[in-house]
Batch of 2 targets.
Target 1
Amino acid sequence: MAVALAACLCLLVLGATTSQAGHPAHQHPKLINPIRMMPEASSGESVPVYNCLSWRLTVETNNKRNWSNVPARCGFYVADYMTGRQYRYDCEAVVDIAIKYVKSLSIPTDGRSIWIFDIDDTALSNLPFFSRPDVFFGVKTLNAELEAEFYEFVLTAEVPVLAATLRLYQAIVEAGIKAVFLTGSSERSADARAKNLKAVGYDTWEELILKPDSVNTTVQVFKSQVRNRLVVQGYRIEGNIGDQWADIVGSNVGRRTFKLPNPMYYGYY
Amino acid sequence: MAVALAACLCLLVLGATTSQAGHPAHQHPKLINPIRMMPEASSGESVPVYNCLSWRLTVETNNKRNWSNVPARCGFYVADYMTGRQYRYDCEAVVDIAIKYVKSLSIPTDGRSIWIFDIDDTALSNLPFFSRPDVFFGVKTLNAELEAEFYEFVLTAEVPVLAATLRLYQAIVEAGIKAVFLTGSSERSADARAKNLKAVGYDTWEELILKPDSVNTTVQVFKSQVRNRLVVQGYRIEGNIGDQWADIVGSNVGRRTFKLPNPMYYGYY
C-alpha cells in the first residue's frame, strides 16, 4: 500500500510540475523525457501495477491477441477490477454511448432492424464462475474438468445479468429494433440459455443462435457466417455488442460495433 | 488526495473481500451485485475520477467516436496520464507486442515488405504543444489561431521522438522491413517533417507520404487510398501503427495493426 501511495504521489507531482509550468511548451523541446520501461526485477514493487494497467489496455484495444491466461502477477489486479466499481462504470460508459447512438437512429417500421448481442459476459455475467478461487479471474487455465464445470454453470440457467447490457436491450426494443442473441455456446445449452435470458429480463428476441457442435470454425468465423446469412435474409444490423473482438470483427459486423471490457479471457476459440 | 486514497482503499477492500471468500462462487449466484452508475451530483468527488478512467477506455477501444474535446472535468486526469509514467508504459507495452510480432515474421529478401508509421503522436510526440496551458491536453478547442501555432510547431522540425516507436522502427529495419511514414500533415510541411524524423533517429524510409492540400477526403479515406496504391505497387504491409483508429481501419490496413494510446484528440478530420 505504501508503495502504491508513493507512486501515486510521484505521478501527481510529475503531472503538476509539467502542466503548471506556464511556459509555451514548444520553447522546451526537451520537456518530455522518454521514460523507458525497466526490467521488473530492478524497478521495485510499483512497476507490476503499472504493467497490469498496460496489459489490460493492450488487451482491450486488440493490440494483444491470442493470449491464453491472465498473467499470474496481474491476478489480484484483475480481481480488484472485476469485483470493484470500475468494471461496472466501464460497462455503463459503453452502454451510454450505445444508447445515445440508438436514439439517433431513424428505424423503419418493417421489422428488419436487428441488434446483435453476444451472451457470455455481454448479456449475462460469468463473474460467479470466474471469481471461483480455482479459476481466479482467468489466471488459472480452464482444463477439461473446469470446462465441464463451466458448462454445468451455464446449464443452471442462473447466470446473472450484466446490468448495463439489459439497459441497452430495453433501449433498442423501445426504438423498434429486435434483439438477436448470437453465442459460441453449444446448441446443447439452448434451453438453459433461453430460460436464463428470460429470467433476467430479456423478454423476447428475433433469434437465439448457438453454435452447432458440427461447426469446427472459430467463433469469429462462425459469427461472421451467421451475420452474412442474416443480411442476406434482409435484416439490417443496426448495432453489435460483445466483450470479445471476435464478436465485432469479420464480415457484416453491423452499422456500429461496441466492445465491452473483459480482461479475463480471450475468445479466439 | 484524501478522497482518492479513500477510493483506493475502498476498492482494495471490495476486491479482497470478494476474491478471498474461498467459496466456489457459483453457489452464490447473487454474489456479484450490479452497481449502477449514479448521477455525478449525488455521488461524491471520487466519481468523476472513475468517469475519466471509463471515458479514456471508451476512447481507446473505439467505442466513443467523433468526439471533439477532452471533457473539462477530465483535464487534470488526462494531464497526469500524459505527463506521468503510465502513458509511457502503455506505449512501451504496445511496442513490446509489435516487436514480438516482427521477430515472428519470415521476411522475404525482395525488399517489398513495409511497415506503416503514422507521424503525429506515433513517430513523434506532440506533447510539448498539447501541454501548453492554452491547449491543456485537448480540453481546449484548437481554433484557427491555435491551429496556426500548431503548424508553426511542426515547422520547427524539433518535435521530440516518441521513444517506444523509435524502438519499433529499429526492430523492423533490423528485420528487413522498410518504413513508410504516412501522415495527414500537409504536404507543405514535407521538408520540416523529413528533417525532424531524421534528427530524432528515423534514418531512412521507403516513402514519406503527406496529404496534398488538394485532397478533400478524411484522413481515414486518404490513408486507405494510399495503402491501396502501395499494395497495387506490390508492397506487403507487414504492420501498421498509429495513435488514431483512423490510421488502422479502412482498406488494406496491413497484416497486423497496432494502436498507441492518445486520449487528447480524435483524428476524424
Note: The CA atoms of residues 58 and 251 of chain B lie 23 Å apart.
Target 2
Amino acid sequence: MSANSATGFMIENQKEWHNFKRRETLPSIAVVSAAQMCIQSPEQADSVSSGWGECPLPICVGHEIVGRVVAVGKTVKTVKIGDRVGVGAQVQSDLTCTNCLGDQENYCSNMIDTYGSLYPDGTISQGGFSSHIRAHEYFTFKIPDAIESEVAAPMLCAGITVYSPLVRLGAEPGKRLAVVGLGGLGHFAVMFAVALGAEVYVLSHTPSKRGDALKMGAKQFVVTGTKDWHKPYQFTFDLILNTTDALHSFVLPDYFSTLKVNGHFHTVGFGDHPLPSIMAQSFAPNGCYFGASHIGNRPEMIAMFDLAAACNLKSWIQPVPISRDGCAQVVKDVHANNGRYRYVLVEYDNEFGKRA
Amino acid sequence: MSANSATGFMIENQKEWHNFKRRETLPSIAVVSAAQMCIQSPEQADSVSSGWGECPLPICVGHEIVGRVVAVGKTVKTVKIGDRVGVGAQVQSDLTCTNCLGDQENYCSNMIDTYGSLYPDGTISQGGFSSHIRAHEYFTFKIPDAIESEVAAPMLCAGITVYSPLVRLGAEPGKRLAVVGLGGLGHFAVMFAVALGAEVYVLSHTPSKRGDALKMGAKQFVVTGTKDWHKPYQFTFDLILNTTDALHSFVLPDYFSTLKVNGHFHTVGFGDHPLPSIMAQSFAPNGCYFGASHIGNRPEMIAMFDLAAACNLKSWIQPVPISRDGCAQVVKDVHANNGRYRYVLVEYDNEFGKRA
C-alpha cells in the first residue's frame, strides 16, 4: 500500500447496489487521508441504488470520512502528515470564483463531490469506503481532540448540512423552530439548534421517536399524522427545517401556516418526486418562503466542530466494521430505514492494514 | 349625501363583471374618507370576474383610494376632518394579536379587506368606486403635500405591495435585483428599487417595454422569450421580484439560476393556476428561496410615501372620469392588458357632488 494508490469497496452495477467488491479506487493521490472510518448515509444508499440518477461506475461511495493525513502536496499549508482530519461531501472547488471568494464554495460551479465527480485531470473522485481518499486541503478539517473520530464522521455531511441553514436562518436564543423528521439529518438539527440556543419542536409522522427527540433536547414533539395537527401552531415557528425525503406527500400550506411572518420552510431532504402542486397564493398568508441548501462552507464546518466540542455533542451512531459484508449490511439497513441514527463504518486497520 | 351613507358603482353578478350599477354601498360609516378618486387594478378586475374566487354580491371594488376625511369616530386621534388621506387594500385588523403588535398587521388573522370582507357587525366592506369608504384610522394615511392625489392613489396597493418586499429583502446600494414584468406593480418596483439605491434589471417576455423600463431607471432590460436567456445571468441577482400572474408558464429553475447564493425569488403576482411542478433539488444549486407577500404594514406605507415625496417619484397613470361607463371601460381595458401602467378614476365631484 503506497500513498499513490488506494483500495476500497466499490459498486460496479447500480442494480446491485449492495454488492461491494474490493478493488483499486484511486490511481493517484494529491492530499491523502488514510480513512480510519467513514459513514454510511441514506444519501449514499440512494446514490448507489440510482435513486439520485446516473453515476460513473465502478464507484466507491462514502462522504463522511475521518482519518490521518498520510501525504500532502507541495503547497499544502493547513494540514500536515499525521493530523487527524475529516472530509465531507466536497473535496474541491475552483477557489477563485465569486462564490468561493465569498465563502460560498459549497455553491461553486466547479465543485468536485467526494465521489462520482470528474477532476480536470480525468480522474473520477472516489469516496470513503476505501483505504485512502483524496481531498483539497481547503476541504480537509482538523477534528478537535475532544471529539472521537466515529462521532465526528457523520457531522461532516449530515451535520454541516443542517448546521449551515440553521445558522444562516438565525437559530439562536429567542427563536422557535421545527425540525421535520428525526433521522440522520434531523437528530443533528435538534442537537445543534438546541446548542445554538433555539427552542426546538420535532415534527414527525408517528410518535415512535418522541423519547429520543426529548433526550436530544427538543422542547416538544408534534405528531403530524392527524388532519388538523397544524392548527394549534399557527404563526409559531421562525423556521421549519425539513429533513425527510417525503415532501411530495406533504400538505405544504399546513406546514406554512405554522411559520411566523416571513419565516422560512427550508429543506435538506430531497426525494425522487416533485413537490406537491401548490398555488403561489399559499405563501401569502404569512409571507413565507420555501427553499433548500447544499452542505455548508468551511467557516461553518469549523464553527460546527467548535460548537460540538464545547457542548459535548455526540452523534447517535451504530458502528459496523468495514468489510464487503459490512458495507452491504449498512446500505441495506439504511434502505430499510433501520438506522438510529447514523451507521459508521469502523476498524479500517483490520481491513486495510495500518496506514498512518 | 350624509356621512352615514355612501353611493358607489357596484357589480351585482360576477359573470357581468363590467356591468356597474350606482347604488348605496355603506349603511353606516365610522371613519369616512370622501373618495376623490380610486384606482382600477388587475386584481380588481380579476376579483369582479370571479378570477380569485367567490365574493359577496353586490360588491363595490376599488382599493387605492385618496380623499378627504369627512367624519371620524370619537376615539380617532391620528386623522381629523379635512385631512387628505389614502386608504389601501386593508381597512382594519384586530391590532391586538402578535402579528399586529409586531408591525405585521397586514398578516392579521382578523384583517378586513377594503372590499368584500365581513365586519364583526355584519357589514360587508365596500371599496373606492364610491362616494365614501370606511376605514380604521390605523389604515388611513396622510398623503404628503408634494404628491398629487392621482399619483398617490396607486401607491396605496400596487406601490406598497412591491415596496414592502423590496425593503424587507434588502433593496439598497450594492444590491442587484430583477423585476419580472412591467405593469402596474412592476413599474413601481423599478422606481422604488432604484430610489432605494439598488441596481435594477427588468425581465420581460417581450421587448415592447424596454424604453419605458429605462426611463423608469432600470439599468438593463432582459428579454426572457428565448430558450437560454438566463445563461449570461447565473448568480447575478440578490432578489427577483415577480409582478406577473404567469408563473405557471415559467421554467422556475432558469430564474432561480440567476439568483446569488441564498437569494429570494419573491412573487407579488398571483395567477389562477398552480405553480409549475418542481423538484426540491431545484433550490439547492444556489440555496435559493421562493415566496410571496401580502401588501405591507403601516410603517412601510409611511416610509414609501416619504421616499416618493423625497425623490419626486410619479406613478405612470391614465386618468378616467368615474361614471358607470368609466368603471366599465377601465375593467375591460385592464382585462385586455391595455394599462400603461395604472388607471385612476378621477373627477369624483362631478359624479357624487362636493363632499368635503
Note: The two ends of chain A are 11 Å apart (CA to CA).
